[in-house]
Amino acid sequence: xxxxLFLGCTIPARALDYELSARSVLKTLGIEVVDxxxxxxxxxxxxxxxxxxxxxxxxxxxxxxxxxLDVLTLCNACTEMLSKAELALRDERRLSRVNRVLxxxxxxxxxxxxxxxxxxxxxxxxxxxxxxxxxxxRPLKGLKVAVHYGCHYMRPSRVYGEFDDPEFPQSxxxxxxxxxxxxxxxxxxxxxxxxxxLNFDEEVAVEMARMKLDPLSRRGVDALVVICPFCxxxxxxxxxxxxxxxxxxxxxxxxxxxxxxxxxEPDELGFQLNVADVEELLEKVGV
Amino acid sequence: xxxxxxxxxxxxxVGNLDHRFPDRILRQxxxxxxxxxxxxxxxxxxxxxxxIDSRYSPRRVIKRILLGMRDQVLRDRFIWLCSACFLCQxxxxxxxxxxxVMTVLKNMAVKEGILPQGIARMMEVFKRTGRLYPIxxxxxxxxxxxxxxxxxxEQEAVKRLLEE
Lengths: 287, 164
Fold this sequence. Notes:
The structure holds two protein chains of two kinds. By secondary structure, chain A is α/β, with parallel strands linked by helices. Helix content of chain A is about 45%, strand content about 10%.
């Protein structure tokens, strides 16, 4: 398995714990990733100029195509934007319009056929739960975590097909269980984090994050497991505005959890960078 | 008074309607199914933003488009409040895609000079550096300490694609 690793803008600047743990876990599992000079996926400027957003996405797909690689993403928003663009560019007219821009400005061209896959989807669909279970050498028995999928991981289904249910997904629950930890059911499990409107109305965005965090803080979980940097930042960096002292919930990325189960050290998984106190969590795991 | 303002904003003034407005949206990718809307309201019932601020209603935005209330729709701050969770899109019995319609509307609003401050600030950084979050010295150092690959501070290809 060999992929071009797509970090996007947010992860390499604001979620280094996610990037570090993803790289460590992929290496341990033997999934090879290649770094290309990818740029922004286009998602952040969709509201301003959809045409430019599509051109940005197409440029990235063209880079991967040139290397003959499919794209492995870590961010839900990048995943959605690139997947949506890949679908839109199957339309000849849109493709030739975008290629005109790419050729003029960068001398690039996209022809089609690059697959875009989120890390969690690759682990679930391609690597497979059985092989993950086999690779686990420090089962996380007794650990109770809440999973948060993030809307763009499996929606809109017109883009993703039916690899997971758009309203009641289960792939991340199964991935958590493969580590030996328990994925608890909880209220507002499918709530949206609110990050999508953070730079328009911070107050409403924080209220959205509160919808999940407030009840979850009384649920007694060891961590909230996320797979998108926007969700991660929303639930970790805004947590102090929402929860009073004592109710802290460590927000961790799935590869951080999986990495612990694979026997990796906390420092290889970016736990030194987590916003919330993760000591209790690591103690429970015994590292 | 707020109630008067809301009322005036809600008035359907026949003389001010733009009957070509719905067609302009129908022609954009994502807006194609607009006319299929039969106002069942499942979008608004599914909307998490609507739970927080009940004045936000995707159904109302769609109805106003169909009526041709162009100015009210494009000036409405609520078109920027869609968090694109896509729940309404999954549930719509008529395959209308409200989040994609909101994107079309936002693009139109921007062309008319309406750009919320936070998004304008983001665009400024983005055009200047080609990144949403430029890799500053602090981040570059942190990346190096963690053994993560070096990244250029700015992204040239993105900058070139963003030029007017």
